[in-house]
Write a structure and sequence with these properties.
The complex is a heterodimer. Chain A is an alpha+beta fold. Chain A is built from nine helices and seven strands, in the order ββαβββββαααααααα. Chain A has helices spanning 37-47, 105-113, 133-142, 150-154, 156-160, 166-177, 185-191, 202-206, 213-226, and strands spanning 4-13, 23-32, 67-70, 73-76, 85-89, 96-98, 101-102. In chain A, the strands form two sheets. Chain A has a five-stranded mixed β-sheet with strand order 2-1-5-3-4. In chain A, strand 3 and strand 4 form a beta hairpin. The relative contact order of chain A is 0.12. The model of chain A has no long low-confidence stretch (mean pLDDT 91). Chain B is mainly alpha-helical. Chain B has four helices and no strands. Chain B has helices at 19-49, 59-65, 68-92, 99-121. Classes of the chains: A alpha+beta, B mainly alpha.
Chain lengths: 233, 124
């Protein structure tokens, strides 16, 4: 049974058009211990700060739009359990549009630049193409990335080095494994800073969809060492 | 698992230990400890055996170097740095090692080296 609790949420407020620098506002929230962070944010928006900017869509962890940082850790707000004390901030390193909303223009541009759709050597003949069921399952799993950017925000290599981030590597690996794709995804991954990854697996731990971008990077590195990227040679 | 369902219906990511961060920090720290110890060791040997450095009073370095806890930390660092480095190398070859198991395994084995040093100094 959920129990009533009191929470203290410190939220980073910033409107680039009005504020000269970000500030933190503290809110006392009465809720229940089974609330998610998104419930806390919505409660604050509805009862205490009607001008608070935040975003969400599905509320069940499928869309990835509600990602924020809680106590310094990137999480999906609709999935993360509330805490008695929490500091809620927008995802880094993305530019802030307002309060908890970040600008995803660069993310979308990066997705477009990497051409995340199978690049066919020959035109699609029509009809179903035979595929190994195990490979199909693996591709489906990799394709379930929410693009929430939680892994990119948590990645220490993104912070320190010229690295696009784990989410992009996972998507490139998804395409590299796709039988219909003929693009040189390994080269794309290297250009996107794949070699800068520390191999710490933090992205794997944080991923809300239980994916492993770190393993995708390891597979790319294996291909680089052993020349295993079969279909591109 | 269906794609329409969510693998996790609640998370506590902001509360748990982040293995990647801890392992990466320990890897860097252990590397720094090894470098410092090698430096101290080289200085000690120079003071002992090179006549030019004989007037230097570095007996305190000798004392520090012979502390059992210093040896325990050093052996932990050497073991951790080596094993974690090997784990990264194995990962480069495409093998998937579970990060939690690898972390605790490496910390455990490294702690055994530290314990052995403590026991050696205690004469056990």
């Amino acid at each position: 049974m959920p129990t009533d609790i009191k929470m203290r949420a410190e939220i980073r407020r910033y409107d680039p058009g009005v504020d000269t620098e970000p500030r933190y506002e503290t809110f006392e929230v009465a809720g229940q211990d089974n609330w998610r962070i998104l419930d806390v944010i919505r409660s604050i928006y509805e009862r205490q700060a009607g001008d608070l900017a935040y975003q969400f869509a599905c509320r069940v962890g499928r869309c990835g739009t509600c990602a924020v940082k809680v106590n310094g850790v990137p999480v999906l707000a609709c999935q993360e359990r509330c805490k008695p004390e929490m500091k809620i901030e927008p995802l880094t390193p993305f530019p802030v549009l307002r309060d908890l909303v970040v600008d995803r223009t660069e993310v979308e541009a990066r997705y477009e630049q990497h051409a995340y759709a199978p690049q066919r050597a020959t035109p699609y003949a029509g009809g179903p193409e035979p595929i190994d069921p195990l490979l199909a399952e693996d591709l489906c799993h990799k394709g379930s990335c929410l693009a929430c950017m939680v892994c990119v925000s948590g990645c220490p290599a993104v912070e320190e080095r010229a690295f696009d981030g784990p989410a992009f590597m996972l998507k490139l690996r998804h395409m590299a494994d796709h039988p219909a794709d003929s693009g040189n995804r390994l080269e794309q991954a290297i250009d996107a800073g794949m070699l800068e990854c520390f191999g710490c697996d933090l992205c794997t731990q944080l991923c809300p969809a239980d994916l492993s971008p770190a393993q995708a990077i390891r597979e790319f590195r294996r291909d680089m060492i052993f020349g295993g990227s079969k279909k591109h040679e | 698992m269906s794609n329409a369902t969510l693998p996790r219906n609640t998370t506590r990511q902001a509360e748990g230990m982040h293995y990647g961060n801890v392992a990466r920090t320990l890897h860097r720290f252990s590397g720094a400890v090894i470098i410092v110890f090698v430096l101290v060791h080289v200085i000690m040997q120079a003071v002992r055996h090179v006549p030019m450095f004989a007037p230097v009073n570095a007996s305190w370095l000798q004392t520090v170097q012979e502390q059992n806890w210093v040896h325990a930390i050093l052996f932990f660092c050497i073991a951790f740095h080596t094993l974690y480095g090997l784990k990264l190398l194995v990962g480069e070859l495409g093998f998937n090692i579970r990060y939690q198991a690898a972390f605790w395994g490496i910390v455990g084995v490294s702690a055994l080296f530290a314990l052995r040093e403590m026991l050696r100094y205690a004469g056990i």
